[in-house]
Amino acid sequence: MTIPDPLIALRAFIAADAAVIVLAGTRVFAEELPKAEADLQPRSTVLLESAGGPASRDFVRLGRTGVDVRTYGVTPLHAMKLHLAVHEALKHLERVVQTPGPVLLHSVAALGGPLALRDPDASWPFVFRSYELLAAEAAA
Amino acid sequence: MSKVTVAWHGDTVKAAVRAAEQRAVDAASRAAAERARSNHPGWKDVTGRTSASIEAMPSERTADGVRGLVGSSLPHFIFLEIGHHGRKGDRTLRRAATIEAATIGARVRDALPADYRR
Questions:
Q1: First vs last Cα of chain B: how many Å apart?
Q2: Where are the domains of chain B?
Q3: Which of B85, B94, B99 sits opposite A121 (nearest CB)?
Q4: pTM higher than 0.80, yes or no?
């Protein structure tokens, strides 16, 4: 039995969003930027990272996963524009069966507001925001 | 027709539960800060200054409950927490808060007056 990775499914969901495609093309990544992409930064790019989650004490095959979303841009305004596109897509995520998996993504909740930051080493502008993803832990 | 007089203590109970909530969240926040100060595998603290900067703030009442706050007073701490180019974030605060948040229910129960816990 293959256990679907909800972060990879969420990456695919965001990568298929029309507004995100207009701003970032296919540059939506999970866990870390590939070196080839990092070498081309800063430019409009989305990065999703696993970020823990609350305790689970039952046998229901449903998990809450913390997801940190970074949107990079040439300027802070580009990063924020891309963030707003991603946020809009996530707000409208409601019970979607997403490939790869396929896995049922129930919903995504923002855990706070966006933070506009600059990478302390590379000086890339980016916007950071934390979300919680509710998704099935078994393939749909 | 018989009459029954009921003594309503709802407001008293509500106040006691709210006070217990606040004490529980404050205790959980302090525990989360302590946990974060001593559990940070993703970064080293040579001088002790970074660990010492982690503290719990007094909780705040919100429209739907109580909010606890744990953080660091150092501006660069956020990059230890979330990472930056070439370095993964340690999620020190989030990990500590997640673990201690799971204890809040039991802490509320313990913070209630003894005759409320039956």
A1: 34
A2: 10-116
A3: B85
A4: yes
